[in-house]
Amino acid sequence: MEYRNKLVLAPMVRVGTLPFRMLAAHYGADITYGEEIIDHKIIKCERRVNDVLGTTDILEKGTDNVVFRTCPEERNRVVFQMGTSDAMRALKAAEIVYVFHSKSSCAMKHFLYSLLQFGRDEGRDVSDILWIMDTTDVCLKCKDVAAVDINMGCPKSFSISGGMGAALLSKPELIHDILTTLRRNLDVPVTCKIRLLKSPQDTVELARRIEKTGVSALAVHGRKVPDRPRDPAKWNEIADVAAALSIPVIANGDVFEYEDFQRIRDETGASSVMVARGAIWNASIFSSEGKIPWEDVKREYVRKSILWDNDIRSTKHTLKEMIAHYYSLGLPEGLAVIKSETSADLAKLYGLEEYYEYVSESRRK
Length: 365
Ligand SMILES: Cc1cc2nc3c(=O)[nH]c(=O)nc-3n(C[C@H](O)[C@H](O)[C@H](O)COP(=O)(O)O)c2cc1C
Hints:
This is tRNA-dihydrouridine synthase. Its EC number is 1.3.1.-. The protein is built from 16 helices and twelve strands. It has helices at 18-27, 39-42, 87-97, 107-121, 127-135, 157-161, 172-185, 200-212, 235-244, 258-268, 277-281, 294-307, 312-324, 332-339, 343-349, 353-364, and strands spanning 7-9, 31-33, 37-38, 45-50, 55-60, 66-70, 78-83, 147-152, 190-196, 217-224, 249-252, 272-275. The strands form two sheets. An eight-stranded parallel β-barrel has the order 1-2-7-8-9-10-11-12, surrounded by six helices. A three-stranded antiparallel β-sheet has the order 4-5-6, with no helix packed on it. Bound molecules: flavin mononucleotide (FMN).
């Protein structure tokens, strides 16, 4: 995957599931990160091809609980982000998510991807295409994700106490071990996402060590571990990292408008830009044609959640995050989302009953 000059959807727990990633891509995101999933959780999972949805699902063993769901349309841009504190466990987990069968690139695969994408965009029945992909073993068993990323920035206590997230920032040998192990054994790019350290010199020193592991890119969240989201991101300290490295640096922090993509690039010299909250509040931030009304974006999100049969708790959580930026959740819309128990309830709330029926009917066929 190419990391230069890209607009990137940041990893976001409980938000960055398949429908939100597809939403961001729909508006122009080039690379979309999944939510962080802990390696301990993944190694208790199994992969299953979901013939009804045309997805690959990573499920808790022996259950239908989806831990990670992806589809062929996002295969060239989805990044699987993992939380880990151990190289071998990280590799074991990555190998469950990522399956690679052959190094030869397959022209047929690309052709079928395009057909599938076109069919879905046009609202056509794509079951035949999925069938061909499945039976010819062309597509569904190749690489399922475009890259694997390690979260080295999470400051939450569950991460730190498990030696993961920002706890790794003070353990450069462990960082080296994890990244080199993944790099040597996986045939997709390996990257990581860090926060700033106490001093710019410390951050640059760590970034240089990370670069030496052979990672394809480094995402830098321009805040320090004790910083809160309301504290301004320090773009000048991301600039220090970008100036010191040859690999692409992905700048992250306080991008809220399309124009900010260029501003942060100019101020940091970073190749690419990653956005989290700005995308929750209006995912059309990625569109060069300007934002569309967030009400429309929200409805499109519900539509995609229905299409990809998203876990209702994740859909509700994301909707609440979207709404809370604009209105109190104590107002009627927020209360109705909180009360919703099924996708059918949400479909009704957002006037998507017909679409819900259509999708449910096609699944029954
Ligand atoms: C709801 C939410 C969930 C997040 N989950 C993750 C995560 O799973 N992994 C991660 O590396 N960072 C996570 N972050 C941090 C963001 O990826 C990003 O670094 C941070 O929000 C700064 O970007 P922003 O200023 O564009 O919001 C999360 C942030 C938010 C708001």
